[in-house]
């Protein structure tokens, strides 16, 4: 099953603020393998397939370094189409001497790194959904060591040639200020389902029984403030909806729970209780 196309809701594009547009473009091209789709003096849209923007980076006027212990981005996650693609990017990282983290989450195999501004990045592949273990409505996920011996034993001889065209924005993981209000917003307002609880520290939510389209945690502290508007970090992310009817129903639910929805430059933007901005797009 494809968990990143309609009728499922999914994250389409992540929009970041950076300190140096030139430095960030160089990183995302050379290290991550994106291509520039559009470019202005202070902004660039990055793509895997040459048609669809997955990431937008912008250098605000009077930009400030990333603020710690605030709400906002924990990481955005690029989903690769095959395990061979993961093998090739691991070899690419090794060749350029890049240090990165890794984990086996049972549902997926993942690499972790940060861009030059400290914006978190995950690059991962999913195991087949038939292998995911569900119990009482929750999917089993863990943080086990990634088996590089097994991964790199596979006979993949092709060279890394950049981000594969079929890569998508797999999910986004956010720092939030509390989980009670956050859960109400994302479930009763946006209509997602909680599919995993990590104690009282994190929630993982999805549509269509994916292992998660959005992760939410309080690891920067309960009550963490939102960063300044000029701070490096998350500007917004786009939630792709299957229809105008879905969007209208969502806006009605958000209104019922008192969640702010604003119109800005022709876009409809919902704001979660921690100040994270979500562009509602059909």
UniProtKB/TrEMBL annotation:
It comes from the Bacteria. Coiled coil: none annotated. InterPro entries: Glyas_Bleomycin-R_OHBP_Dase, Glyas_Fos-R_dOase_dom, Glyoxalase_1_CS, VOC_core. Pfam families: Glyoxalase (PF00903). SUPFAM superfamilies: Glyoxalase/Bleomycin resistance protein/Dihydroxybiphenyl dioxygenase (SSF54593). Keywords: Metal-binding. The keyword Metal-binding applies. Residues 10-126, 168-282 form the VOC domain. This is VOC family protein. Gene3D superfamilies: 2,3-Dihydroxybiphenyl 1,2-Dioxygenase, domain 1 (3.10.180.10).
